[in-house]
């Protein structure tokens, strides 16, 4: 009956060690195949079987997670459609990334209760259960509505509203050119539209940027501690975790290298990555170095670089500093309890405007300053932590990406010399996608705009 | 005392643009049809601007033609000039507009009606409908004649409780001092119809001999032959120009000084006027920063000196109108032949209609045109045609024809009216059509001729010509897809000459035509078709290939929409029993009673969750019915 394929995380968020993403619809298996890497092709496997493999991001080609995939073919499934269930390691990042990969590969994000709805429409569940489905849809939309109201007051909706307003003014102008060709309004030029679209694109990118920040907020700031062996990384971590007893969760990565620990530093959730790596390697002094850090760095939002106060800068130190050039970082010069051998002026000249903190973790000196520096970075930096309603959910990110794509298409249309009334179609799409983010309706406000902006008549 | 005067299949009340199309369609579909009008001298009368077409409206005229209606043919025979508008833009928004000879237009339409077999014309005023058990069975006139019929189409224009307002003068009247229809308005209310009061207006008319066109900018027609109808073969090339002039600060000052005498501001007018057609006093108040407004001077016909003053619609007192006119460049000595006025009238709330234009309240009764809250001759004619078709089909026991939003502007128009209603006189705009790219001026025949033929309004011979055209288009597109040109010196030379880059490898003609510098003409120079093709075919080939990417995108959107459109809402659905939908949605759904989930989803206030719940409710019921 339904012809599109839907996907959603079907286990409660942030709970349990495993999360399941469910995909249902005629293309469920084909879509899963696009992002699944394993010994078999999912389209070839028998129904109701489980397969080990990896999820690969369709755009970057990176491995997103290690997973178990269950393939179930219609009709013996919950929805009576082809269903694929992907069991991910519970951490929010891989789960979201897997869902994102599915959405990029042709699945649509399921509406609240939609799996159950399909199950019902396809005759899988009976009449009495249908009532429950209705309650479910209603409850979830109420929740969504509540969230929408929160967002209505938030910065996101203000920004989107402003953006939509810019777009609708342009749309109205184009519409007037078309509907009232003899009216003495200036003809909108392609140069103007191009300029406008580039501005809009920038705005959307900025919003998508906040999407990343929104995610940071919910999932913790991915933090990596790096430094040569024996500079005190392990002690720093222990101090952070012990000082701030608020360990949020501890997910043992059974097959992965990176173990995460959550700490709460002055209200900012930090997710410390590669804690296991640091713990292990501190014992085996020689075996580490830049290579290993590099892996953890790939995911880092914040880097804590530890240098040794009691030794001159080494080439490894300099290499690390260069590697961290574009990262948000705090540089910690540890072991001030020991005689100074490091050239702090050189360090300063190398690290640019990153905060530099001197500590003696052993003697618990400088920890306050370190926490202060971390907090300052985020409170005073680009991120506004007080606003909890930043673009943070996958649906919004998805819609913003679609809006972005539409604006891109306007630009390529202009480049290909298409008439403006034609590329306008993509601009209108962008406007509608943005409207969906904040739940604003469409059509009529364009007409309103036309008549308030221009003086028309016979 | 009443007497039985006759029995017909279909009775049409009103012979304006809606009524004429309705009556002709019904008669041509084989129904014995009676057309009753207040005055046989005002058939197809244009009480306001003397023009037909323009963006969206011109598209409707083409659609009417493709479905076998009359408006396109009639204007092709009676215009004084035609212009293709928007030619600097994309083909989706090209729009043809004609200036009409109003008087000729009326005469021509009257002749067509008089000569139509199955159609009788009668001058009278209908005062009541004969309604039994919720079904309309005929009409009763002021003279006591009872006419019976199986269906009735009501096209009352602005006559229902019409009231003309000029300054502080106001009196009951139809447009241009025609007699208004008062009793019928009260009768409709008695029947239970919910009515609204709308307002529209018209500018003064002036004598051509009293104005100085040398001070204005000339607006000639196109010098290439143009026609609305796909059937027209004779073109009028002897055209009259229009003229452009402007208001100025003096004009605005006089209006400002007399605003207290304008009924818009003194409170005499209660009806809601259209925003897209404001009076000059309204423009000056709302857009006070504009120091001039355009004024077009348009002939009302070839055999008259009367000129229409487009842009100066007003209900200011007569003395102010004259003063205002005479401030305008070229009109300093203008003689005002008719005074501008505002007119208020009753319309029915159009959400009381099914998409077939049959009323929900009274079966077998259809309404079309301004009574449904629209404005514009074209909007009226489009509805009239559909109401006539569906009234005839009802007589014949057939399902109604409902155009969807991806098929025709007429579909957009009717769907908007019956689904969303309207808070002001409704005018079509291209921006109301989400599939504008598919609803082009050039392809109305490709969109609708099949349907027109199926309905029985397109004669066999015309249909055969159409099919041949369609095949020629398909064949030539195929050829362009399958033919590659190699980078030979000759080809490169042609490309260079056209200012486009040379090709490196063999390229399909179909992709070459997508370059902005190239069109079908250029492609045919590089690789001529095996047999010559007509300009209409060439135009289609070019548009369909050049804009293929956009057309595909639009088609995908249509595909999505169609799925929801196909999900019918069964008659047994009782919205008061659908648990879980919001109360606003419930109220709106009960009022509109949409025929499909697609239509339901377009009602404002009905959100996706409501649609989901409704879908489940329907499925639940269907299952229960199957079991029971």
UniProtKB/TrEMBL annotation, chain A:
Residues 220-379 form the TrmE-type G domain. GO terms for biological process: tRNA methylation; tRNA wobble uridine modification. K(+) binds at residues 230, 249, 251, 254. GO terms for cellular component: cytosol. Its cofactor is K(+). The keyword Metal-binding applies. GTP binds at residues 230-235, 249-255, 274-277. SUPFAM superfamilies: P-loop containing nucleoside triphosphate hydrolases, TrmE connector domain. Mg(2+) binds at residues 234, 255. Keywords: Cytoplasm, GTP-binding, Hydrolase, Magnesium, Metal-binding, Nucleotide-binding, Potassium, tRNA processing. (6S)-5-formyl-5,6,7,8-tetrahydrofolate binds at residues 22, 85, 124, 458. It comes from the Bacteria. Its EC number is 3.6.-.-. GO terms for molecular function: GTP binding; GTPase activity; identical protein binding; metal ion binding. InterPro entries: G_TrmE (IPR031168), GTP-bd (IPR006073), GTP-bd_TrmE_N (IPR018948), GTPase_MnmE (IPR004520), MnmE_dom2 (IPR027368), MnmE_helical (IPR025867), P-loop_NTPase (IPR027417), Small_GTP-bd (IPR005225). Belongs to the TRAFAC class TrmE-Era-EngA-EngB-Septin-like GTPase superfamily. TrmE GTPase family. Homodimer. Heterotetramer of two MnmE and two MnmG subunits. Exhibits a very high intrinsic GTPase hydrolysis rate. Involved in the addition of a carboxymethylaminomethyl (cmnm) group at the wobble position (U34) of certain tRNAs, forming tRNA-cmnm(5)s(2)U34. This is tRNA modification GTPase MnmE. It comes from Thermoflavimicrobium dichotomicum.
Automatic annotation (TrEMBL), chain B:
Coiled coil: none annotated. NAD(+) binds at residues 273-287. Its cofactor is FAD. Keywords: Cytoplasm, FAD, Flavoprotein, NAD, tRNA processing. NAD-binding protein involved in the addition of a carboxymethylaminomethyl (cmnm) group at the wobble position (U34) of certain tRNAs, forming tRNA-cmnm(5)s(2)U34. GO terms for cellular component: cytosol. It comes from Thermoflavimicrobium dichotomicum. The gene is mnmG. This is tRNA uridine 5-carboxymethylaminomethyl modification enzyme MnmG. Homodimer. Heterotetramer of two MnmE and two MnmG subunits. SUPFAM superfamilies: FAD/NAD(P)-binding domain. InterPro entries: FAD/NAD-bd_sf, GIDA_C_N, MnmG, MnmG-rel, MnmG-rel_CS, MnmG_C, MnmG_C_subdom, MnmG_C_subdom_sf.
